[in-house]
């Protein structure tokens, strides 16, 4: 169950994407302008954003650049009537995950969601986000993000590793358990192995 | 053996005239009664029928046999398609000819069994392109089939001069088959260097030929 | 790598050519049932017949141009409906959708009953209002004459 935001100035498009993704049992919130969407993103970022490029006032590309600047880790799928190569390339340059042209089929929306939501790229971005929270001492935010990752990426070793990073400072046994779980899922996970060694050798850093 | 011309105005008239001069029996089918009156006066030997040539009940009155020729010339691709399909499936004419206005429809018509199509748009487009590079390009096989063969003459300032064949930015769907240099034919290899004065014999798919011209001769 | 089940949407992708009374009516209905509907018409004014709740796409285009079918993504359609006022246009759109784009279900409205048989051979479903009306009238008039029907 993912948290999805949709930004499009056409109500029929908002309704259509909402209908398609709610049928897939996700939670969907829609916005008619980039400004409204941004306000809510700042408070609570989604797991994935569908956005149009042609929006009143702030357009989709500007929004995408802001998301990129602020290092948000959620993937963006652009849904637009535009078929000009330059516009599409520009959007990809600023880190979007996928581009769907209108009209679109329900299958296109669903497949794009699955490709981007579960992409290695997204997971990496989220990993960076958690690490930056941990380094800044924002443990509450970090642990919230890690719990989401456990839910959304159940077979990945990365949430276990990140949890271990969090737990490292207050419960080394718990951290060790998660590192072992991470290594069970991926025996070649270098960072997990290194952290485990660190704990075992009694290093307090 | 009769030739049936469905629709069309001037094209139908001129085509009919030419065919009649060669001794063919020609039947013109057209919805426009006024036009038909005019045609009847000018084409005394032709049979002129007023009716919609894309309607089966009209065609059934014309005693069409599988040995006859059938040409759909209306300005509407959909009418030409339906008329040709009736000719093929009801009367057994193997290769009805359809005029297509939208060149993109060629592949779709083929898929439906109408393989012989003529697209004036394509012919004109080709002619226009050739006009742009007129002096340097000779179309060796003037046709609108799947392959275009050109002779392209290299001049001092042509971007391809001085480059090796493998360095040329020509599309994948094209190849330099031969180079005529000082009266001799060379079959080029990847490292053959293009010289000014060379006549390149180029084969390419028609869809990429303008890219080929641009790469070898430069922007217009 | 985590794996999610490939979930298919129960909503279909439907392309309708012709936004007249029939086209717009069907479009409104299909859209209200949760399908993704694209309506194509040559005239922009035709789209005003679509209801306020219509949650689909509109494209201004000519059904006889291949480009229009490609813009409407006909190759991804589950169903194509050819409902323009012109029989031949409907036949051409239907045949190309069926044979060239391999759309699973294609339905065309054709007024002239003489055209039906030939096109059914291609697997296109034909709706002939003339014949439907004849049948209705026959039913209404009941058994007349010595015909055992």
From TrEMBL, chain A:
InterPro entries: Bact_response_regulator (IPR050595), CheY-like_superfamily (IPR011006), Sig_transdc_resp-reg_receiver (IPR001789), TPR-like_helical_dom_sf (IPR011990). GO terms for biological process: phosphorelay signal transduction system. The modification 4-aspartylphosphate is found at residue 52. It comes from the Bacteria. Keywords: Phosphoprotein. PROSITE patterns: RESPONSE_REGULATORY. Residues 3-117 form the Response regulatory domain. Gene3D superfamilies: 3.40.50.2300, Tetratricopeptide repeat domain. SUPFAM superfamilies: CheY-like. PANTHER family: REGULATORY PROTEIN (PTHR44591:SF18), STRESS RESPONSE REGULATOR PROTEIN 1 (PTHR44591). This is Response regulator. It comes from Kosmotoga arenicorallina.
TrEMBL record, chain C:
The lineage of its organism: Bacteria, Thermotogati, Thermotogota, Thermotogae, Kosmotogales. This is TrkA family potassium uptake protein. The keyword Transit peptide does not apply. GO terms for cellular component: plasma membrane. Keywords: Ion transport, Potassium, Potassium transport, Transport. InterPro entries: K_uptake_TrkA, NAD(P)-bd_dom_sf, RCK_N, Trk_Ktr_HKT_K-transport. It comes from Kosmotoga arenicorallina. GO terms for molecular function: potassium ion transmembrane transporter activity. It comes from the Bacteria. Residues 11-131 form the RCK N-terminal domain.
């Amino acid at each position: 169950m993912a948290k999805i935001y949709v930004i499009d100035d056409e109500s029929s498009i908002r309704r259509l994407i909402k209908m398609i993704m709610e049928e897939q049992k996700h939670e969907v919130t829609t916005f008619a302008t980039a400004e409204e969407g941004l306000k809510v993103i700042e408070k609570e970022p989604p797991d994935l954003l569908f956005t149009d490029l042609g929006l009143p006032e702030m357009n989709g590309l500007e929004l995408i650049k802001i998301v990129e600047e602020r290092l948000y880790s959620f993937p963006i799928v652009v849904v637009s009537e535009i078929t000009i190569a330059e516009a599409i390339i520009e959007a990809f340059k600023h880190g979007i995950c996928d581009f769907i042209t209108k009209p679109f089929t329900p299958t296109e929306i669903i497949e794009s969601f699955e490709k981007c939501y579960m992409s290695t790229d997204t997971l990496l971005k989220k990993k960076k986000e958690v690490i930056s929270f941990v380094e800044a001492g924002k443990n509450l935010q970090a642990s919230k993000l890690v719990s989401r990752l456990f839910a959304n990426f159940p077979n990945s070793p990365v949430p276990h590793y990140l949890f271990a990073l969090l737990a490292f400072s207050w419960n080394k046994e718990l951290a060790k358990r998660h590192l072992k779980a991470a290594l069970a899922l991926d025996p070649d996970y270098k960072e997990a192995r290194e952290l485990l060694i660190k704990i075992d050798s009694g290093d307090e850093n | 053996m009769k030739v049936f011309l469905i629709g069309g105005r001037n094209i139908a008239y001129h085509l009919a005239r030419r065919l009649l001069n060669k001794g063919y029996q020609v039947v013109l089918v057209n919805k426009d009664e006024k036009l038909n009156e005019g045609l009847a006066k000018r084409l005394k030997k032709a049979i002129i029928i007023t009716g919609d040539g894309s309607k089966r009940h009209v065609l059934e009155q014309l005693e069409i046999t599988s040995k006859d020729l059938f040409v759909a010339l209306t300005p509407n691709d959909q009418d030409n398609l339906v008329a040709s399909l009736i000719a093929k499936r009801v009367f057994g004419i193997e290769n009805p000819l359809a005029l297509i206005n939208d060149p993109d429809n060629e592949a779709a018509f083929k898929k439906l069994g109408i393989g012989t199509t003529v697209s004036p748009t394509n012919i004109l487009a080709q002619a226009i392109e050739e006009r742009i590079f007129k002096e340097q390009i000779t179309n060796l096989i003037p046709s609108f089939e799947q392959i275009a063969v050109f002779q392209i003459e290299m001049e001092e300032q042509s971007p391809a001069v001085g480059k090796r064949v493998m360095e040329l930015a020509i599309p994948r769907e094209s190849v330099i088959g031969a180079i005529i240099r000082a009266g001799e034919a060379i079959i080029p290899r990847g490292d053959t260097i293009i010289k000014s004065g060379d006549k390149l014999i180029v084969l390419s798919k028609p869809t990429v030929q303008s890219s080929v011209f641009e790469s070898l001769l430069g922007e217009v | 790598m985590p794996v999610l089940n490939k979930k298919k949407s129960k909503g279909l992708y439907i392309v309708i050519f012709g936004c007249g009374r029939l086209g717009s009516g069907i479009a409104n209905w299909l859209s209200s049932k949760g399908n993704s509907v694209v309506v194509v018409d040559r005239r922009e004014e035709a789209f005003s017949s679509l209801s306020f709740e219509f949650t689909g796409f509109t494209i201004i285009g000519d059904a006889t141009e291949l480009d229009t079918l490609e813009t409407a993504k006909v190759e991804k359609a589950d169903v194509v409906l050819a409902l323009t006022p012109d029989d031949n246009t409907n036949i051409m759109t239907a045949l190309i959708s069926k044979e060239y784009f391999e759309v699973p279900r294609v339905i065309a409205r054709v007024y002239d009953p003489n055209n039906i048989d030939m096109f059914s051979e291609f697997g296109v479903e034909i709706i002939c209002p003339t014949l439907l009306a004849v049948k209705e009238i026959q039913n209404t008039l009941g058994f007349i004459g010595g015909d055992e029907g």
